[in-house]
Amino acid sequence: MAAASPTPRSLRPLASAIALGIVACPARSFAFDAEVRAESTASSWQVRGPAGAAVLSLRRFTQTLSLAGSSRSDDPRAPVVRLRARLRIDSDFGTACDPGTDRCLDELNRSRAAEFAPLFARRAVDLPFAFLEVSGLARGRVDLRAGRQLVVDPLGFFLFDGGLARLNVGDVASVEAYGGWETRSGFPLSNGRYERDGLLRADRAGWDRSTATAVLDRASATVLGVAVDVRASTRLDARLTWRRIWTAEGVAEEAVAARSDLQLSGSVRAFAEAVYMVPMATVTTAALGVEGLPARGGRWSVEVLRVRPVFDLTSIWASFWMDPTDEARASLSLPLSRSVDLSLGAWVRRYVLDSEVPDNSAPSLGALLNVGASASARVRRPRWDATLRASLEGGALGMRGNADLALRAWVIRRALRIDGLVSLAHVRDTLRDDRSLDGVGLVLGATAPLGRVAQVSVSLEDDINTVVGHRVRAIGVLELRTIP
User: Are the CB atoms for 436 and 454 separated by under 8 Å?
Assistant: First the structure.
């Protein structure tokens, strides 16, 4: 039986509490600091096949407007009011045509299924976040937040519309609860960026039932979450969290996660993290590691982890067994001098491919091992810096290697910077030879600050490989920043 989704009426007490907290702020003398940022990005890119014919051409213009503000009172114990918002407008003026058949993909041509791309949009307006927060209520014990907000914890990135309340127990612990509706694709001002894999959703209003049947109609999902943070002086920082998301079709996600960070000494810390999916009764993520900071500078770390893919539990993919990936890795970074840094890394990766086999008659591949290593060196000078990186991984699943050289140089100090990148890639796939490739990437760009409030950047990229051919992209960015 599908779980019932609470109505907006059931969340009114939380909304009322947030509104009451805002109104209850003491009427003292205070100022309001604000910052406005605007960024305009123009990009033009094209994909050409191995024969040189243009397969996809796009010209995209993106504008982002960000607003940040906070109150400033003459009373240090007064609550602080913060406002954060970002609006993004994305428009495409290009074409997606096949010159061989003279057919073009379009979001509006629903009469011809072969030419209809249901998730392609020429114009998109997105609200990544917009919330009002009041912190420091009840003598610093209570924080309230309402609006579109992002939660980042061991369960991952999660965006929702609703309210969050936090109770601070001194400097030792805090308890928070949040509820609302998940920000999903198909709804206004939302692109579903942080949704789980497994389902495609869109606003199907006006669509024929036979059109793009794999794309589901939009459906709201309710979320409830609780988290406890513990901070024992400067040695221990831990978080335990639970989150449940459900719709009329059933539970989409219910998980419990824990994270801890323990300072073993002045220069060594241990960390651990685990995620448990309740409906599946499965640990989907587990990690354990140690990190140290040597006396002469740098950093070293050793970590083991297991990751199992997770899908929306209302999708058909959730009914399949998903094979995990186990990994053990070590890294070391240290300064060779005041201007030269060296980084080294090594790892062993174990793939379990019991269900993913080259063909239906092949036996299980079982556990397969790949080993890899990486190295990088960076040189910093007053007028330029350069970074050389290389990595190589090989084993039962084939071989993958890449190397790149990046250079940044101030041609005119604080007025014009030139950026360049050259990269090489080599991939040999044992399971599917058609995915094997050799590639070269070239990037050339320039950045010019325009005083203290603006900056202009341009870049030209060309990625070439034996599978796709050429992928050319040109990008221009204008960034403005003002403080009223």
Answer: no
**Which tens digit of pLDDT belongs to each residue from 360-419?**
444 455 678 999 999 999 999 999 999 999 999 999 889 999 999 999 999 998 899 999
Answer for the pair 349, 325: CB distance below 8 angstroms, yes or no. Answer: yes
Q: What is the pLDDT of residues 88-113, one digit of tens each?
A: 998 876 665 655 666 665 655 555 55
pLDDT, tens digit (0-9, with 9 covering 90-100), for 54-93: 666 778 888 999 999 999 888 888 899 999 999 999 887 6
Residue 192 C-alpha from the chain's centroid = 12
Q: Is 156 left (phi over 0), alpha (psi -120 to 50) or beta?
A: left
Looking only at the bridges linking them, the beta strands covering 200-202 and 215-217 are: parallel
What is the distance between the alpha carbons of residues 396 and 428, in angstroms, rounded to a whole number?
Answer: 11
Reduced to 3 states (helix: H, G, I; strand: E, B; else coil), residue 425 is strand
Return the sign of the alpha-carbon dihedral for residues 291, 294, 300, 304. negative
Q: What is the pLDDT of residues 264-285, one digit of tens each?
A: 988 999 999 999 999 989 999 9
Measured on CA atoms in the order 284, 288, 293, 294, is the torsion positive or negative? negative
Question: How far is the C-alpha of 451 from the C-alpha of 288, rounded, in Å?
Answer: 46
Ramachandran angles phi, psi of 333, nearest 5°: -135, 135
Distances (CA, A) of 426 to 392, 402, 471: 9, 6, 17
Rounded mean pLDDT, 36-61: 78
The first and second tokens of residue 480, run together, are 């403005």
How far the first Cα of the chain sits from its last, in Å, is 55
| 8 Å CB contact between 153 and 241 | yes
Per-residue confidence band for 330, with pLDDT thresholds at 50, 70 and 90: very high
Tokens 């990186």 sit on residue? 389
**What is the reported pTM?**
0.81
**Helix or strand or coil: residue 365?**
coil
Q: How far apart are CA 358 and CA 124, in angstroms?
A: 39
Q: Where are the domains of the chain?
A: 26-78+401-484
> Are 379 and 340 spatial neighbours (Cβ–Cβ below 8 Å)?
yes
